[in-house]
Amino acid sequence: MNSPLPCGCRQAAAPDRYISFKDIDCDGNARRIMDCIAQHIALPERNNAFWEYFMKKREGGSGPRPDDLFLIHSNINQVRELFETWDDQQALEWLLQLEEECC
Question: What does the sequence similarity comment in the record state about its family (predicted)?
């Protein structure tokens, strides 16, 4: 039995992942993560051969152009490591949300 929330607040509905993905902007959330990656690797000390390859792959430079969600999902550990290395807590939160809702 659910107890009422104080002040007439309503509990937000849980995302409908794995069923319809209704109300989950997976593409937009993936673009937001890509923007974070791009901001990090724009700084020379944060860029390396892997990130150059990653961005080239994003543009379709080594085959068909993958969508951002697929590319992030395929390299999620490297993306997480980038954000952890540079202590980007906001990007880590967004990455966890993307992983839980869309991957």
Answer: Belongs to the CowN family.
